[in-house]
């Protein structure tokens, strides 16, 4: 149900015409044009907030919608609900709006620390599949963006109509009226972000241990003197733990954010030195709560860990994260926690929950503007053990983990 209150923007504040609202929202001065520094691409990444940049684009979209509507109807359909920036900028009709979007896109990629990993992340997206038929039939849409801050504290979603009026939409109820969202492509952003995080962790640990070669699982070869041919040396099997089923009760995602983008952080201790191991693993299939998924995904390579135990945090990506900063924060917190333990060998794998606990303590305070949502945590997953329909510590995730030994190619 659409719980929006249509409000006219008058003299830079909200005014409810012919209706009395029980409580007035905070005053708001809409920008009628995007900041010149953002449109020209000269703004520093932090000069304009992510939400404010998207707000400006949403207003511009509402003003140009009649021109853009044929393009959007061509791009958005039952097969895809989004119109990526790379496609919009190739269309002459959409080119003026796409240029504004490109400037914001460039600033956001720099702010998120992923400019080296993807050439664009922004898109226009129909908020929900249920809106498609009404929008295709000609119902006028609203134009929205994600608010700033932790989504658990959002009071409403703001959206423009084609006349520039603001509507306040319920955070949890999907509106009946079509809503076009100015947003980043969360899947594309997270894929780039995970690469950035893993690369940053490798870089930081490589700087600290420049003479330590990474442990390789590649096949080794040697020259056989008796026949002159290269022969494969014996390669050990690989011990892993596979995620065979998972279900979430709540993916922590409001309707305006679209599908959930979940990733895992597997924590443990390096097998050769007293340093934490942090593996960031994408879970691209895990889109919705109350749905069973059977990915058969390898989550833990046990050769990377000192003891036969590891922890796994489940996180949901939200806006505002700088992925390189997040990687540094993860590594710093885990390293400091490990150094504070007098004798890790005596405590063995009991050390790992202490590392995970310190990482969890850091999550709300310093990692993001719209904080990456903590979904749940699995403590002390053991090598070689099967866990069937196993509830995580917060009872928000239920999963089945199965040991798998991967033999070398014959």
Q: If you had to describe this structure to a student in words, what would you say it looks like?
A:
- It comes from Photobacterium atrarenae.
- Pfam families: DUF3103 (PF11301).
- Keywords: Signal.
- Residues 1-20 form the signal peptide.
- The strands form four sheets. This protein has an eight-stranded mixed beta sheet with strand order 2-1-7-6-5-8-4-3. A four-stranded antiparallel beta sheet has the order 14-11-18-17, with no helix packed on it.
- The longest helix has 26 residues, at 50-75.
- It has helices spanning 36-40, 50-75, 85-88, 95-112, 132-136, 186-208, 323-339, 344-347, 351-366, and strands spanning 5-10, 13-15, 82-84, 122-126, 142-144, 157-160, 166-169, 179-184, 221-223, 230-232, 238-248, 262-269, 276-283, 297-301, 309-316, 373-382, 387-391, 397-406.
- The protein has 410 residues and is α+β, with helices and mostly antiparallel strands.
- It is elongated and about 70 Å long.
- A hairpin with a 5-residue loop joins β6 and β7.
- It contains nine helices and 18 strands.
- The chain is 29% helix and 26% strand.
Topology:
Layout: E1 5-10, E2 13-15, H1 36-40, H2 50-75, E3 82-84, H3 85-88, H4 95-112, E4 122-126, H5 132-136, E5 142-144, E6 157-160, E7 166-169, E8 179-184, H6 186-208, E9 221-223, E10 230-232, E11 238-248, E12 262-269, E13 276-283, E14 297-301, E15 309-316, H7 323-339, H8 344-347, H9 351-366, E16 373-382, E17 387-391, E18 397-406
Parallel strand pairs: 5-8
Antiparallel strand pairs: 1-2, 1-7, 3-4, 4-8, 5-6, 6-7, 9-10, 11-14, 11-18, 12-13, 12-15, 15-16, 17-18
Helix pairs in contact: 2-4, 6-7, 7-9
Organism: Photobacterium atrarenae
Protein name: DUF3103 domain-containing protein
Keywords: Signal
